[in-house]
C-alpha cells in the first residue's frame, strides 16, 4: 500500500549548489579574508564542503581548518569576507546546466509559482538571480529571500513558511529543491516535499541516508521522509508531481479547446 502524495502547487529552490555553482567565488572571498589575517587559504573543494549554513558558519569553518581558532577575531574575518565577496559575487560563479530551461518550463509550461530560499543575505541572492536573468521566472524580488529577510536561516522553517504564507499555499503542497542536509532538515521541519540534488555541495553521507530511506513505502515518495533524488536539474521535470502538474495543465487546455 502506497502512502498518499499531495500535489505540488509551489516549488522553492535553494541557490548555492542547486541553481548555481558559487564555490569558486566563495573560495576566493575566503582566501582573501584568511590571507589578510595571516592564515592560509583553502582549495575550492575544501570550501565547497563548508558551504550551506550561512556566511558566519562558512568563515568559522574556514578559520578552524586553517588553524586560526582562538587566534583571530571571527567578526573581523567575517567583515573582510563580506567586503570582498560583495564586490565579486559572480566572477567565476556559473549556473548549473539546464537551470534556465528548467525554470522556464516550470514557470511557463507547468504554470507553477517559483520561489527561492537561501542562507545567503537576500540582497546578494537577488543580485545573483538578476545577473543570470532568472528573476522573471520568480515573478518578483519578494520571491527571492535570504536569511536576513526573515531573521532566520535554514533549517529553521521560517524561510519556507514565509513563501507559503505569502502565496496562500500549504507546506504539504510545496516542493523544496536543495542539495544539502540542511535543506533536507528544512523540508522535514517545514512539512514540505523534498528533492535532493545529488550534483550539488552535499556530502556522500547525506546521499547515502536519503537512498537508504527510499524503500520506506509507508512514506510517500517525495516526502521529506522519502525524498526524490535528482542527478541533473532537468531530472526535476520527470518527477511524478511535476509530470502531474504539466499533464493537468495540458488537460485543462484540451478541455477548453473542445
- State the distance separating the first and last CA atoms: 37 Å
Helices and strands, in order, run as EEHHHHEHEHHEHHEHEHEH
Q: Which radius of gyration do the C-alpha atoms yield?
A: 19 Å
- The whole-number mean of residue pLDDT values reads 93
Class based on secondary structure composition and strand pairing:
alpha/beta
User: What is the 3D form?
Assistant: globular
CATH 4th-level superfamily of the largest domain: HAD superfamily/HAD-like
User: Into how many domains do the coordinates divide?
Assistant: 2
What do we call the CATH topology of the largest domain?
Rossmann fold
CATH uppermost class of the largest domain: Alpha Beta
Spatial ordering of strands, largest sheet: 5-4-1-6-7-8
Query: Which sheet architecture does the biggest sheet show?
Result: 6 strands, parallel
List the helices and strands and how they pair.
Layout: E1 10-13, E2 20-21, H1 23-36, H2 44-48, H3 55-65, H4 74-87, E3 94-95, H5 99-109, E4 114-117, H6 122-131, H7 135-138, E5 144-145, H8 147-150, H9 158-167, E6 174-178, H10 181-190, E7 193-197, H11 204-212, E8 228-230, H12 240-256
Amino acid at each position: 500500500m502506497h502512502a498518499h502524495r499531495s500535489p505540488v502547487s509551489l516549488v522553492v529552490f535553494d541557490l548555492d549548489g542547486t541553481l548555481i555553482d558559487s564555490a569558486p567565488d566563495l573560495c576566493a572571498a575566503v582566501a582573501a579574508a584568511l590571507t589578510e589575517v595571516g592564515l592560509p587559504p583553502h582549495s575550492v573543494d575544501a570550501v565547497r564542503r563548508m558551504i550551506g549554513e550561512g556566511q558566519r558558519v562558512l568563515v568559522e569553518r574556514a578559520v578552524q581548518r586553517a588553524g586560526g581558532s582562538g587566534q583571530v577575531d571571527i567578526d573581523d574575518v567575517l567583515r573582510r569576507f563580506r567586503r570582498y565577496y560583495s564586490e565579486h559575487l559572480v566572477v567565476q560563479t556559473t549556473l548549473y546546466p539546464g537551470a534556465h530551461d528548467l525554470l522556464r518550463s516550470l514557470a511557463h509550461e507547468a504554470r507553477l509559482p517559483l520561489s527561492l530560499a537561501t542562507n545567503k543575505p537576500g540582497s546578494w541572492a537577488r543580485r545573483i538571480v538578476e545577473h543570470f536573468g532568472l528573476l522573471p521566472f520568480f515573478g518578483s524580488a519578494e520571491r527571492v529571500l535570504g536569511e536576513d529577510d526573515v531573521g532566520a536561516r535554514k533549517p529553521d522553517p521560517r524561510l519556507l513558511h514565509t513563501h507559503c504564507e505569502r502565496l496562500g499555499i500549504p507546506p504539504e503542497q510545496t516542493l523544496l529543491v536543495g542539495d544539502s542536509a540542511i535543506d533536507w532538515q528544512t523540508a522535514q521541519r517545514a512539512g514540505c516535499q523534498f528533492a535532493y540534488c545529488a550534483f550539488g555541495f552535499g556530502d556522500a553521507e547525506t546521499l547515502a541516508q536519503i537512498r537508504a530511506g527510499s524503500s520506506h513505502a509507508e512514506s510517500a515518495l517525495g516526502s521529506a521522509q522519502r525524498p526524490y533524488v535528482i542527478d541533473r536539474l532537468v531530472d526535476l521535470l520527470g518527477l511524478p508531481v511535476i509530470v502531474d502538474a504539466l499533464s493537468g495543465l495540458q488537460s485543462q487546455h484540451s478541455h477548453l479547446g473542445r
